[in-house]
Amino acid sequence: MTDDVIVRPKGRRNNAADSDAPVVKAGPAPQPQEETASAPETGRKSALGGIGSSIPFGKRREEDRKGTWGDSGYRATDDQAHRDVAYGIPSFMKQTWIVFMVQMKLFSKQKWTYFMLFVALLIPIVYFAGHNLLTSMLSGFGFVTEYSNTFIAGMLAFLPLLLGLFTSVMCGTQLPNEFKERTAYMNVSLPLDRRSFYLGKYLAGFIMSLAVFMFAYGMAIATAMSRYDAIFADLLSSSLALTIVGVFAYSATAFCIGSFMRRGSSLIPFILMSVAIPMVCTLVFAVYEYTGPDLSWLFYLPCFLGEAALGILGAPMSGSAGMVVIPYMDLTNIGINLAVGIVWGAAFLLLGMFKTMRREM
Amino acid sequence: MRVGYVAMAAIAIMMAACVVPVLAEESDAADSLRMSDKYVLYAQFEKQAVDEWYYEWYYDNTLYFIDGSPEDQEMKRYIEDPYGVSITDDQRESVEAAPAGTLINVYELSTYYYDFDVQTVNYNDQEVPGVKIMDPYGSMSFFVKAGDTITLTIHDIEQSYVGSNVMSEIEASVYVDYQTHTIDPTFSHQYDVSTEMSVDFNNTYNAVYWEVSYDVSGISEPNGSATLYIAICAVITVLVLALLVYAGIKPKWAK
């Protein structure tokens, strides 16, 4: 004897007061099946009814789908059928890597990337094309001497200026462009750690900027070797280290400034780091040089790392806003310059991360 | 992901190689150095008979030799090997007494020379365009690293033959901190930035060359090969460009 399935209207309890409520008999209740070895597990019914019963709802249990593979005799262990696979959000490093590669892909499509590499390639081109003119110009500024390091510094005379410009272009516009083009609203709303989003984009800009300046150094050294035989290896190492930290400090500053801006601008970080701060520091130092306190510590700021990189090579001056500060710098211990640059860059990076994580969408 | 870890490790190693300085010791030197700041212009004349009222000037910055004489041969050897050959005298007295028709080799010393404005050499009321046969050579400069102290002591500055009596001795000086410091006989200074210090010599009016005996300490000499650094920069650049290409090839990074 089978029991009828009784379907009651919603909102009514099964009590004596509702004995007059209309009920619908849905027919005989389904008989429980005999359990056999081949009988598949029964799962909950789909909320979508008949059609929904054929649509998988959740991955925890296999549904009993009559007429499909459920009764085909398919047998597999949980491991073979990957039933124990846990699906979750990728790790922090994985997310950061994906954002990094996506940004690198964007860089591969930007003209500025190839323009910057071409500027570095101009170093040997200009030297060999206008050898006599360039040599006489460099001699006039004290870059052509008996030693290769000063010549390398001459080839990289505009390093401080281009440090600010290239890092501003690479790192200063990433975050504002994300919000301007509305892609950030799609990315950040996903289960993506904002820190991964921030760091992945920054790392791509930093690595790209670093590659450009390493390429420029390689071109300058190779060009110098066409004229000289040996170099001061330790001084070149110091100069490279100062440039790497300079790229970090400049790019972190530009990225942080970009995180505060609604509209991207590659000029503001460049003007701040390569023009405004150096000029103000130089003027203040000049005013108080003879009558006031010793302000030579101002030249430890990261905006003078480009000048320090040239000064350690023996350059008498540089092609930047702080062109006359090299003789007044103290490069006896570049560890101070490196430490200040790293702390500055880390601080700006953290500030920008804090701003990005708290940013309202 | 594995590529990213390898790239990061490679960059870290290279950055460490850049940061760790190669050991370089300061060097001292006790040496003698010959140098000249003069261009030598050459012209040959055939001595002509002149009027009695004509007075032949023999200039202090010019050397006169009779062609083919031992002194003239010595001068020619000096032109070919300025560091190895010394000249002692010219032959202006013999030239003055030489008869007409004698070939006279005249070497004029000048502190400047322009290709577009060739200087003329004068002798015996004749004027001939000079041919530049020697450029200035030798200089005294030292490279001092940031934090090092250079000490330079000049023992002696010996002039070569000059055409007239020496009016004043050659002086050595350096230009440091926007001031000229005469080296008499020692100069010492600590530099805060790496600098190439050049020594200037004054009162060298008519000296063909001069030799400096000196002692110096606290200087550095180039001691490294650029190949390693070129390789480091090239590898970093190539790695990043490879990442750039790899990122552009894959159609979608986030699944």
How many angstroms does the end-to-end distance of chain A come to? 62 Å
The spatial strand order of the largest sheet of chain A comes to 1-2
Low-pLDDT regions of chain A = 1-53
- Number of distinct helices of chain A: 13
Structural class of chain A: mainly alpha
What is the β-strand count of chain B? Answer: 14
Report mean pLDDT of chain B, rounded to a whole number: 84
Summed up, the helix count of chain B is 4
| Spatial extent as radius of gyration of chain B | 29 Å
Residue share in helices of chain B? 10-25%
Share of residues in strands of chain A: under 5%
Strand content of chain B: 35-45%
Distance between the termini of chain B: 14 Å
Strand order of the largest sheet of chain B: 1-14-9-12
**Biggest interchain interface, per-side counts:** A-B, 58 and 50 residues
Tell me the total number of β-strands of chain A.
2
Shape of chain B: elongated
Mean pLDDT of chain A: 80
Spans of chain B of at least 5 consecutive residues whose pLDDT stays below 50 are: 17-25
The largest sheet of chain B, given as strand count, sense and whether it forms a barrel, is: 4 strands, antiparallel
Q: Please provide the ordered H/E string of secondary-structure elements of chain A.
A: EEHHHHHHHHHHHHH
Commentary on this structure:
The complex is a heterodimer of chains A (361) and B (255). In chain A, helix 6 (159-171) runs antiparallel to helix 11 (267-287) and helix 10 (233-260) packs across helix 11. Chain A contains 13 helices and two strands, in the order E-E-H-H-H-H-H-H-H-H-H-H-H-H-H. Chain A has 361 residues and is mostly helical. Chain A has one domain (92-357). Helices cover 54% and strands 2% of the residues of chain A. Chain A has helices spanning 49-52, 92-108, 111-129, 131-140, 148-155, 159-171, 174-180, 183-189, 194-224, 233-260, 267-287, 305-311, 334-357, and strands spanning 4-7, 24-28. In chain A, strands 1-2 form a two-stranded antiparallel sheet. Chain A is elongated and about 90 Å long. With 255 residues, chain B is of the alpha+beta class. Chain B folds into three domains: 2-21 and 225-249; 27-34 and 140-219, Jelly Rolls; 39-134, no CATH class. Chain B has four helices and 14 strands. Chain B has helices at 2-19, 70-80, 92-97, 227-249; strands at residues 27-35, 39-46, 62-66, 103-110, 120-123, 126-129, 131-134, 141-144, 149-159, 171-176, 179-182, 186-190, 195-202, 210-219. In chain B, strands 1-14-9-12 form a four-stranded antiparallel beta sheet, with no helix packed on it. In chain B, a hairpin with a 2-residue loop joins strand 10 (171-176) and strand 11 (179-182). The longest helix of chain B has 23 residues, at 227-249.
